[in-house]
Amino acid sequence: MSNLRIGTSGWNYPTGEGTWNGVFYPPRRGRPKSFDELSYYAEHFDTVEVNSTFYGQPRADVTRRWVERTPAGFEFSVKLYQKFTHPRMFKERLERSLPPADDDVLSELARPNAADLDDFRRGIEPLAEAGRMGALLAQFPPSFKSGEAERTYLVELLRAFRDYPVAVELRHKSWSDSFDDTLALLNASQAAWVQIDEPKFRLSIRQNYLPNVQGFYYMRLHGRNAANWWKHDKAEDRYDYLYSPDELQEFTDLAGAAKTLVKKFYLYANNHFSAKSVANAAMIKQQLGEPLAGEYPETFVQQFPQLALAVKTEKTRSRIG
Description:
Layout: E1 4-9, H1 37-42, E2 47-50, H2 60-68, E3 75-79, H3 82-85, H4 87-97, H5 103-109, H6 114-129, E4 133-139, H7 148-160, E5 166-169, H8 173-177, H9 179-188, E6 192-193, E7 195-197, E8 216-221, H10 245-258, E9 264-269, H11 276-288, E10 295-296, H12 298-303, E11 312-313, H13 314-320
Parallel strand pairs: 1-2, 1-9, 2-3, 3-4, 4-5, 5-6, 7-8, 8-9, 10-11
Helix pairs in contact: 2-6, 10-11
C-alpha cells in the first residue's frame, strides 16, 4: 500500500450553493434511502479529513460507525475541537447560546480542560483501535501569533495528544518569521508543520513545503480565491476555486518527491465548493499515475471535462462491457 494518501477536507456538504449533491453524489431527490455518502466517498479515496469534529466533540458511537462504513485501510484525519484551537470563537458561540453571563465566567467556560481532552480521546478511540487514525489536525486561526503564551500553550497541547500523530496548521507570519524556533518546537513533539496553499496577504505565513519530521507530512490546499477570502456573502464562497492542472503540478511534483522522505504523506484539498476539491484531488492522483478508483457520475465529468478520460463513469463502463 502506498504511503501517499490524497483526499478532501470533509465528505458531506448537503446544503448551500457549494453542495456536492448532483455533482459528485447523486441528487438527493430520487436516490435510494440506503445511499451512504461516506461509503460512496471511500470507493474513490482512501482518506478524508473530518471537519465536523471542529464544531462538536467526536462521539465514539459515531466514529465506530465511520469505521463500519469504510473499507479496511481507509484513514480518517480529524480536526481538533474548536475549544482547543479557537477559544475566542467558542466563547462567541457561548454568548449567543447562553443567557447573559459575566465575561470572566464565559472565558473560563471557553478554556479547554482535562475533561475536554478525555472526551476527545474517547470520541476518536474507535478509529485508533481499528488502525484507521490518520492524524489530528490542530488548525489555529490567523490571529494566533507566535508569542511566549502561544508557544507554551502549543507545547502543552502537543503533550496532551502525544499518543497521536498531530499536524499543526499555523497561519500568522510570526511563526515563519521565527522559523527556527517554530521548527524546534514542533520537532520536539514529532508534530508535522502543516503546509498550506492559500491566498497570501501581508500577515500570511510563508513556507517552503519541506517536511519537518520523518513520521508524516501534511498538506492542505485551500484554493486561491483572494477576492472572496475575507469578504464573502457565505463562508463557502471562500473555497470557490478550481486549481488548473498547471497549478497542481507543483504539488504533484512535491508529493512525488516528499513521499520518499516520510513514512506517510497526507494531502487534502479544501476548496470544497461544488466538489471542486474532489476534482482537484482526482487530478493530482492522475498526474501522479495513482489509480482513480470508483465510478463517477456523468454530471461530474460534465462539470470537470478535464477528467473525462481519466475517471470511470457508467457510460465508459457500459462501453467497456
